[in-house]
Amino acid sequence: MNNNYKKIEDTCITISELMLPSHANFSGKIHGGYILNLMDQIAFACASKHSGTYCVTASVDTVNFINPIEVGELVTMRASINYVGNTSMVVGIRVESQNIQTGNVKHCNSSYFTMVAKNEQGSNSKVPGIIISNDNEMRRFLEAIHRNETRKNRLEEFDSENFSVQEHAKDLEKYNIKIEL
């Protein structure tokens, strides 16, 4: 096998942590910022394991908190490489919590972290490719391409030099706003 490619399963990371009262927000649920911090750590670990280098977070896409996490639940995060470019990787993360008394498991969050590999001088570093071994890995790779294209299109459409108020003003009529330009 060519060393420039790695199997996705070989760089997956799973972490579990018991949620403590110190992790809770004012409403008694686990603070979203704490979960994001853990997600950033597992994204770093997964990307670094794949690239063999230090990695930095370039962006976070689609963080939807689906279900709250309670104090006393066991949170498990699974991270895998969904996409690789030349120096960047998209790490998909699934967050689940389990009530350890009842065994009930709930999906709490899924997110995508774009990580960039760095060399010792701090410059971007080329990353190994991935070996796609099943339909699910293929779907995740294609979804990452689609998210990247959608993001680029959105940035171009709303770029300040290209943006046209007249083109978009009518789109705002159904929203709870008052325009005073």
TrEMBL record:
GO terms for biological process: acyl-CoA metabolic process. InterPro entries: Cytosol_ACT, HOTDOG_ACOT, HotDog_dom_sf, Thioestr_dom. The keyword Metal-binding does not apply. Coiled coil: none annotated. Keywords: Hydrolase. Residues 9-121 form the HotDog ACOT-type domain. CDD domains: BFIT_BACH. Gene3D superfamilies: Hotdog Thioesterase. Pfam families: 4HBT (PF03061). GO terms for cellular component: cytosol. The keyword Acetylation does not apply. One of its GO terms (molecular function) is long-chain fatty acyl-CoA hydrolase activity. Signal peptide: none annotated. Belongs to the acyl coenzyme A hydrolase family. This is Acyl-CoA thioesterase. It comes from Tenacibaculum aiptasiae. The lineage of its organism: Bacteria, Pseudomonadati, Bacteroidota, Flavobacteriia, Flavobacteriales.
